[in-house]
Amino acid sequence: QVQLVESGGGLVQAGGSLRLSCAASGRTFSSYAMGWFRQAPGKEREFVATISGRGGSQYYTDSVKGRFTISRDNAKNTVYLQMNSLIPEDTAVYYCGARPGNYAYTQVNEYPYWGQGTQVTVSS
User: Measured between alpha carbons, how far is 17 from 87 in angstroms, rounded to an integer?
Assistant: First the structure.
């Protein structure tokens, strides 16, 4: 069982930056792939970025490539999402997910563990 707690969301103007954090419980954090997903009102949860257990592989959805960076600190049991050049279309609740494995997984249904989410609002 893994428990996840996201933080770092907020209100920011277009062009601004935020860094999201997701702290995980447990002593085997490096054996879990981690992902960031987001869900806007009235839309399905969608993939944003993922990183493998040891951090060697990262993947991004096309709309955030070059603007967002996913990273992890296994000593701190934490995964991050640095978001730069934010646009209003990035507005959503952002969730982190965890699943066993040292690969990068991009599908919502591949993640058995989820945090409660953190709201990101980008104003124009």
Answer: 10
